[in-house]
# Entry
Amino acid sequence: MYALVDRVPRRWRPPATGVGGGPVEAQRIHDLFLVVSRVVNPFVRTLRTQAAHDDVLASLMDADAVAPLPFGTAVMDLEGWVEARVPDLRAALNAVRGSVEMTVRLLRLDAGVDGPHLRSLAERLIERAALPHWRYRPAANPTNVAASLSFLVPRDEVAAFLARIAPVASRAAGLAVVPTGPAPAYSFVSSADTSRAAALAPAG
# Structure
């Protein structure tokens, strides 16, 4: 499974085959649409299979509400899986309706940049973004990506969001601030393995 959507985009053109080799299709159960493909060939997570998963999600960006599911989510009984989670799945769609995810990566230019400096910059970006739902993630491993921020942004406010954070980004010392997106709201839908399908809250 790839995503839950409120409707299939009118001019939807999905990839011919999905991650497991089966055709990509939308199945309607109640008032919900699940975008799925049958697993014809066993697969593991590689750059190629992840790209195939992402291509399916990218094809759905014209839908008003897209709740992406984690890579490799698979069930034997799709209808039963949906039946057990209808209220939570509807809540997940409502939580991201009309919104997309924008990611802001903080790239380390100066090896001396420390955690408090990162957090201070993140707090200024969050304040300028003026959005209620966000996630802050310091990098787990020492790379040039020091941390990232994800924001749930109304799709018609992406340009305004970028304009709001630009003054902070332009004055960031020792760090490059790199926005990417829009993308489906990966960070604002919890694991499909849990009974609750969505969890939205500012990062603490």
